[in-house]
Known about the structure:
Layout: E1 11-17, H1 24-37, E2 42-48, H2 55-61, E3 65-68, H3 74-84, E4 89-92, H4 105-112, E5 117-121, H5 122-125, H6 134-152, E6 164-167, H7 168-174, H8 183-193, E7 198-202, H9 218-231, H10 234-256, H11 266-295, H12 303-311, H13 314-340, H14 344-347, H15 349-383
Parallel strand pairs: 1-2, 1-4, 2-3, 5-7
Antiparallel strand pairs: 4-6, 5-6
Amino acid sequence: MNNHTTDRCEFSIVMPCLNEAETVGDCVKKAILFLKENGISGEVIVADNGSIDGSVSIAQESGARVVSVGEKGYGSALMGGINAADGEFIIMGDSDGSHDFLSLMPFVEKLRLGFDLVVGNRFKGGIERYAMSFVNKYIGNPILSSLGRIFFKSRIKDFHCGLRGFTKRAFERMDLRTTGMEFASEMIVKATLSGMKVIEVPTTMSAPGRTRPPHLKPLSDGWRHLRFLLLYSPRWLFLYPGFALMVLGFAVGITLLPGSILSLDVHTMLYAATGIIIGLQSVSFAILTKVFAMQEKLLPQHPGLNRLLDIVKLEYSLIFGGLLLLLGLAGTIYAIILISEGDFSNLGVTRTMRIIIPSITLLSVGFQIIFTSFFLSILKLKIK
């Protein structure tokens, strides 16, 4: 085993640690034994996140190299340990006794075959009784993993397994940013979106060997994972709902423009116009969020969107928005003329609203397109 010498280090086993005195020593010893029994050149790193229970000295005495990470959080601890690792390949796993560090060969084999990220699947390998709560096992993990597969077209079925392996080069390409528990989701999402070779292997999960309360908070951490998945998928958060609102609002509005249908009249038409405006705003947010995320390297570049943005120049958008403003202004002027001629009251509220509602909608949409175009142009300028 490599003890941080100049010898080639193939594998680094990294464990985050925060007050795991009851289990970290055993985890380190098992990881070292695995490396020795399989003739693997490697090291064991414990990324300590501020333990005050003696975890650091226990890890060192057991043979690990301890890296102190000041910034709090599961993701922060792992990033600190991984950045300090010398191995060409990294295997990360928790130091609470829930992962089997003696059975890491499936990860080693897949990484040696050229896979960029290998994720453990506890549901295929087996979950020991009491190792995972009922809520996490049957509700939280399955729902969040399903959303991850839908949103990002990932094939991973256990998004939150903490035992996984990856190449150091792939980790650098991912450029991970999250510092909390959502770090695990970000890794899979970015690897998938970047076109990396990702695969799952069965692994087991044992009941943690500690007596202290777990760091994981199901509700708050579950929400953080869900929030992350939504924020990293502008299509599902903004684009699809917004586009659906626009189409539905336009269809209802056009249908009611000539006159009422059944009990639907201008009141429904007003809601339809609101749907169009909100829908367009949501679609605008989707585009702006995607561009900003690509700019800040939170998401990989999207060639299709980049080509579209090159075609749809600021001037074209301003012209289109200006035309909609002119149409809305024309409808408004027509309504004012009717008022001045005294015909407005004779037409009745429902008929006049069929002039006013489309005019206001065109004005709102026109201004929105113009403002969004300017904002998008600023983002694109920064990219260049």
